[in-house]
Amino acid sequence: MLRPSTSPKRTPAAGSGSAGVPGGNAVTFCAANWLSFAAAPTFATMALLTGVLGPEDMLCSSVPDASPLTGMVLMYLLMSVFHLPPWLRLVSKARRV
After folding, report:
1. pLDDT at res. 21
2. What letters, b where the CB count within 10 A reaches 16 and e where it falls short, cover 8-24?
3. What is the pLDDT of residues 44-87, one digit of tens each?
4. pLDDT at 42 over 70
5. More exposed terminus of the chain, fewer Cβ within 10 Å: N or C?
6. 42: closest CA among 89, 74, 79, 91?
7. How many CB atoms lie within 10 A of CB 82?
8. What is the CB-side half-sphere exposure of residue 6 using CA atoms within 13 A?
9. Sign (positive/negative) of CA torsion 13, 14, 17, 22?
10. In 41-57, which positions are buried (b, 16+ CB within 10 angstroms) versus exposed (e)?
11. pLDDT of residue 39
């Protein structure tokens, strides 16, 4: 029977991807971290392009004078806002320095 370790320090299992342990997951985490910065500007650009160049037949045909802030444009703007936290954390860190 194995006894539990009495050591207060616990090390993660090999290959768990933590910063102290070499493994492929650290690269994946770094890529995902930088990829999170791409979402907000991408959705903002898509909202701008859809609002300016979007076909009008995508708007609800029963409301001829519909606002351009409906449908896909509004969805892209909301997605851009929801993906702002990585940028806000970056700005707050820069202001502290």
Report:
1. 46
2. eeeeeeeeeeeeeeeee
3. 999 899 888 876 555 555 566 666 566 888 899 999 999 999 99
4. yes
5. N
6. 79
7. 11
8. 1
9. positive
10. eebbebbeebbeebeee
11. 92
CA dist., res. 29 & res. 17, Å (int): 8
Length of the chain: 97
Report pLDDT for 24.
65
Q: Model-level pTM?
A: 0.59
Residue recorded with tokens 């896909």: 72
DSSP reduced 3-state for 39: helix
Q: Of 82, 81, 84, 72, which Cα lies nearest the Cα of 48?
A: 72
- Please give the mean pLDDT across all residues of the chain: 75
DSSP state of 20: T
Distance in angstroms (rounded) separating the CA atoms of residues 64 and 72: 17
